[in-house]
Amino acid sequence: xxxxxxxxxxxxxxxxxxxxxxxxxxxxxxxxxxxxxxxxxxxxxxxxxxxxxxxxxxxxxxxxxxxxxxxxxxxxxxxxxxxxxxxxxxxxxxxxxxxxxxxxxxxxxxxxxxxxxxxxxxxxxxxxxxxxxxxxxxxxxxxxxxxxxxxxxxxxxxxxxxxxxxxxxxxxxxxxxxxxxxxxxxxxxxxxxxxxxxxxxxxxxxxxxxxxxxxxxxxxxxxxxxxxxxxxxxxxxxxxxxxxxxxxxxxxxxxxxxxxxxxxxxxxxxxxxxxxxxxxxxxxxxxxxxxxxxxxxxxxxxxxxxxxxxxxxxxxxxxxxxxxxxxxxxxxxxxxxxxxxxxxxxxxxxxxxxxxxxxxxxxxxxxxxxxxxxxxxxxxxxxxxxxxxxxxxxxxxxxxxxxxxxxxxxxxxxxxxxxxxxxxxxxxxxxxxxxxxxxxxxxxxxxxxxxxxxxxxxxxxxxxxxxxxxxxxxxxxxxxxxxxxxxxxxx
Length: 491
Ligand SMILES: *Cc1c(COP(=O)(O)O)cnc(C)c1O
What we know:
By secondary structure, the chain is an alpha/beta fold.
């Protein structure tokens, strides 16, 4: 029997701890040319550690190779299209990184006195102003740290406004196509969540809304374009209907990549919305942060915005804490300042025309993908796509192949999977958001892969069901892997 020689560089990289051998060092220092100082005498015994239990002893080259090898296991937007629907995984232009790394910005300290932070505050004030212009809203806060945090801030603002009217109300209505963070937000803000069934086109059903809209409803939370990638054409009438009953319209703006420069939510009657700067305005994300979820509001809600607000008088910026109606702080510091810098750089580099073109390209790309896949995959809702398209595995299910299998097989073709099984109103969903930063060649490669997988599902379904085949491991128990991660390498 021929013994298989183990592949050299592969995905079975051990932990650094497991490479350790006693006495190895990653540095060499020249001999001391001054008298040695006893660290215990110099620092005190309580500040000196004799040994770190199990500390890996490895050479410099081992450290470098270890981390470089690990870095090659990641799929990243700098490698290829990242078609996760609802996530807007767009390429982040390098100029944004350059600007965010300018020393005075990258090294800014949260306790820097106001007079030494004027430039940083001007960046924030300018960004607030531009986001207000893009959304058509009266005022913006940059405090929330992510989309979900923005939602919570937004619903607390609605509660504050309604309380000031003497009628905080009890319920928030949420369409059944919504992102999971919407109902979670409403519940955490102390509201009862009531689901609103979508109509046959996957959109807000005005008649149904009218039936559920009583004077206990504080707000409707709607994503537009919705999670099917379809524009809610009745958004303005929805807003009027809500307003006529004293309720507010919250828009989840995570999908603004389909609207920037084309439609302003403020012009459609939206009262409060959040933006995901790390989606629409380019900061790369997916590794757990940092993000940024600014909230834009109509002028009537401005007095309730979190403190401090950035104020300007005689050309000088200051933080204004004297705002008695404010809901308070939603965060202590702007630790994500770099995300704000990138967003402003992105907006200024594009300009109005450029932002509008990016939107048009994002929509064009999604429609291109949908058109080329609808022959192979079921298309549950026929409306033209905005920035993303949602297909389903309905044709593959008869061969025992589901959306999760197709996504795993896509990994063998060298692509990051699309979003699997979301939105929930589409059974077996394949949700694809190419974004504007992919060119035709990249989109064609993705389309070819998905068409080829559709053929395989028909002719060799087991191949798809057991994918991926070219990766370190194949199917793992994802629930257990998430709840009880075991990261130890077993040779
Ligand atoms: C991404 C997303 C959110 C949540 O944003 P986070 O920044 O991940 O908290 C909310 N709603 C929709 C529709 C989204 O796509």
